[in-house]
Each structure stands twice: as structure tokens, then as C-alpha cells.
């Protein structure tokens, strides 16, 4: 088994209500647990960014399914890398809604002596609205 992480970003077609977001989290967590998938989803009412961890074939199959979901468009894989261990092993589907103040702070600052995995750095950048992909933003909001 080759363990990988895949990180993607996408544009939300219509903002999800709190209930819809919780339903999505619950359904995905149940399915991910059965498939030994772990990860984290960030949501800011305009975009999703997700880290998916698991067996390479399983993650790639899940990503193909995710790309077909009508709740978002312009699904772009940012990275797909082999990893030695899971960074989100405790979460079948962690979720942070960046519009909710208590959840906003769940991605913690790094301790200076720890090396932060790329997935954490990307999620933190997304949270802080530092993460920009020129073409993705142009397609999402126009020039």
C-alpha cells in the first residue's frame, strides 16, 4: 500500500447552509472511515480546500468521485504526494468552516521546533486568505 496525500481546491456553486455542511461532513466521514481515508476540509462559503490521505488507488478513485459532485466546480488538484504517515489520522473528515469564529482557530500555529507538513501550511494559508492561484481566482470571480 502506498500512502499519499492529495490536496485540491474548488469553487462552490452555491453556498451551503450549516445543516447542509454538517450533512456533507457526516456522510463523508462515514464513507471515508469504511475506505480508510482521513483528511480535512476547509470551507469559506466560496471555495473548498481539502486534504485527503489514504491508499493511492483509493484516494485517486475518491478524487474522481469528488470532481463529479455538483456542489462545486473547477476542482483542481494542487499536490499528490507520497507520505510516510498521516497528518489527519484522527479525522475521517475534519471540517473547518472559516466563517465560524470558534472553528477558525483549529489550525494551530506551529511550534518553532516542529516541521509543519505541507498540507498544514496550505490549509493555514487558505485560512488566512494568503492562498491565491491567479487562474483559479480569475475563473471564480472574473478578471
TrEMBL record:
Q: Where is the BLUF domain?
A: 3-94
Q: Which domain of life is it from?
A: Bacteria
Q: What is this protein identified as? A: BLUF domain-containing protein
| SMART domains from the UniProt entry | BLUF (SM01034)
Q: What GO MF annotations does this protein's record show?
A: blue light photoreceptor activity; FAD binding
